Amino acid sequence: MFHYKIDDELELRLFEMRHAEILFALVDQNRDRLRQWLSWVDDSRSLQDTEKFIQDSLQEFESDRGFAAGIWFQHQLVGSLGLHDICQRDRKATIGYWLSKTAEGKGIMTNACRGIINYLFEEQKLHRLTIRVQPENHRSRAIPERLGFQKEGILRQDNWMYDRYIDLIVYGLLADEWQRDRAQ
């Protein structure tokens, strides 16, 4: 199973079925806030929905297509970081994330993303990572901007969000850019 320790307080752990109740509770506590940015929230209305999500993400992990990991800060689940659309041939993937309201403003997500970027470029030898964010989601946009991703463009009306299509900003980062920025 995937388990990546970032520092003494922060780690990423692949979601397992035993995490279903705590994950569902965290989503439920943050439902209204998450719903304005994430289109999957209405698909997570019960513990069974969360169990199915975990089962599907474990299948993705087994087939090397992606994964969903819990962000654990001081031994408490505070959010999720997912890797999507892994393409081994092109050595690329997309990162997605969310954080509970109580964990915001502590640098947790920036550090979690920095950790997964290191893992993906150093250990998995990926070449390219992307993050897609709604233009109005300034907190979420700050993460890739802080970590040296380049704004590559806007995908117009790319995602169905409950009752309308929304735009997404695409941020990209290449392995050699990451290495160069870390060397400076």
What this model shows, in words?
With 184 residues, the chain is an alpha+beta fold. It has one domain (3-183): 3-Layer(aba) Sandwich (Aminopeptidase). It is 35% helix and 34% strand. It has six helices and eight strands; from the N terminus they run ββαααβββαβαββα. The chain has helices spanning 20-29, 31-35, 47-62, 108-123, 138-146, 175-183; strands at residues 3-5, 10-14, 67-73, 76-87, 92-99, 128-133, 150-160, 165-174. It has an eight-stranded mixed beta sheet, sandwiched between helices. A hairpin with a 4-residue loop joins strand 1 (3-5) and strand 2. Helix 1 packs across helix 3 (47-62). The longest helix is centred in the first third of the chain and has 16 residues, at 47-62. The protein is globular, with a radius of gyration of 16 Å. 28% of the residues are buried. The mean pLDDT is 95.
Query: Strand arrangement, largest sheet?
Result: 1-2-3-4-5-6-8-7
Sheet/helix structural class: alpha+beta
| Top-tier CATH class | Alpha Beta
SSE pattern, N- to C-terminal: EEHHHEEEHEHEEH
Quaternary organisation of the protein chains: single chain
How many domain units? Answer: 1
Shape, principal axes of CA atoms = globular
Please work out how many helical segments DSSP would assign: 6
CATH structural architecture:
3-Layer(aba) Sandwich
Count the strands? 8
Q: Could you report the average pLDDT, rounded to the nearest whole number?
A: 95
Beta-strand residue fraction: 25-35%
What is the CATH superfamily label?
Answer: Gcn5-related N-acetyltransferase (GNAT)
